[in-house]
Amino acid sequence: MSGVPEITEDQRDCLQEIVNVAMGQAGESLACLLEVFVQLSVPRIRLIESKDITPELQKMIGGDDAKVSAVRQAFYRSSGRLDIQGEALLVFSDTSFHDLAELMAYEEELTLNAEQELLLDVSNILNGACLTGIAEQLESELGYSPPSLIGSNLATDKILSEEQLSWAEALMIEITYRLENRSFNCNLMFLMTGKSIRALLTAIDEFLDEL
Amino acid sequence: MAIPILICDDSLVSRKMVQKSLPPGWEVDITLAKNGQEGLEKIRDGLGEVVFLDLTMPVMDGFQLLEAMKTENLKAFVFVISADIQPEARSRVLGLGAMDFIKKPINAQKLETTLKNFGLL
């Protein structure tokens, strides 16, 4: 079976609520890291097919020539009913990320190294909180690989490899955080096989049945 | 006599989770609202003596509802239930007259303790 499964209104609402709670936790971690108040918005969630991933990203990030930084992190089931595995991918537009980095590096000079370190830290917080939050609320635990940088100053069509595009469907989560007078957007994607996505939806159905 | 309570949240799942977390045996009449505007109307109609309020909602959000209640001098025990757990969000809603701030995901035991603290149980 291939293709992206249909998501029902109830499933979306449920996932949205679960992610919302998780992003609240991530927001608090970010606020601590950056020492600013983070204004949260409700994350937007969609399931998309592999062929639509790149065009969707371009649409959100703004144009074919936008440059992005991207970080990947693998996740897998460790215990519980949520039998999923895949790769989390966090994509920032470079301008958005520069703003964030500037905000952080208020005293230090913003070296490339420091910027990349920040990118990995922020990715770890956002991916970790989001995935852990989803798993926890579905009574499961996930394991993670350390995050690694795919690259900076990348064209949006260079984020995913041919190989990834051959198997992955994506659960795409659009996150906007506003920090003081700046805002930064990032896109969090969970690349999973159709099988993993169906497992996620099944776990959500069970969760809904228990309500 | 049953206490009129209002659950105001745009998410169906979230409304159900609040309902499920209410202390068993607590005599209440539950009214539901999907945004702040609907919530405000129910409160005006006397259907929300105790209000469980989400912050991020379409049409009218939780902050706006609290402000409107202040302007119209509507009294209720409002408990904000929110995913935003930063201290500033908490102090902001308490400043607007909410009784307490409860973190999502809602926990039945903590809710019971909170309600007891305010003499509602």
Descriptive account of the structure:
The complex is a heterodimer of chains A (211) and B (121). Chain A is of the alpha+beta class. Chain A has a single domain, classed as CheC-like (Chemotaxis protein chec, 3-Layer(aba) Sandwich). In chain A, 46% of the residues lie in helices and 31% in strands. Chain A is built from 6 helices and 8 strands, in the order αββαββααββαββα. In chain A, β3 (67-80) and β4 (85-93) form a beta hairpin. The longest helix of chain A is centred in the N-terminal third of the chain and has 26 residues, at 9-34. Chain B has one domain (3-117): Response regulator (Rossmann fold, 3-Layer(aba) Sandwich). In chain B, 40% of the residues lie in helices and 21% in strands. Chain B has helices at 12-21, 36-44, 62-71, 87-95, 108-117; strands at 3-8, 28-33, 50-53, 77-82, 100-103. In chain B, α2 (36-44) runs parallel beside α3. The longest helix of chain B is centred in the first third of the chain and has 10 residues, at 12-21. Classes of the chains: A alpha+beta (211), B alpha/beta (121).
CATH superfamily of chain B: Response regulator
> What is the general shape of chain A?
globular
Terminal CA distance of chain A reads 30 Å
Instruction: Report on the biggest sheet of chain A.
Output: 8 strands, antiparallel
**CATH second-level architecture of chain B:** 3-Layer(aba) Sandwich
Our count of domains of chain A comes out at 1
The pLDDT mean of chain A sits at 83
Q: Percent of residues of chain A in beta strands?
A: 25-35%
Helical content class of chain A: 40-55%
**Number of extended strands of chain B:** 5
Low-confidence stretches of chain B: none
What's the total helix number of chain A? 6
Binned, the helix content of chain B reads 25-40%
Strand content of chain B: 15-25%
Average pLDDT taken over every residue of chain B: 94
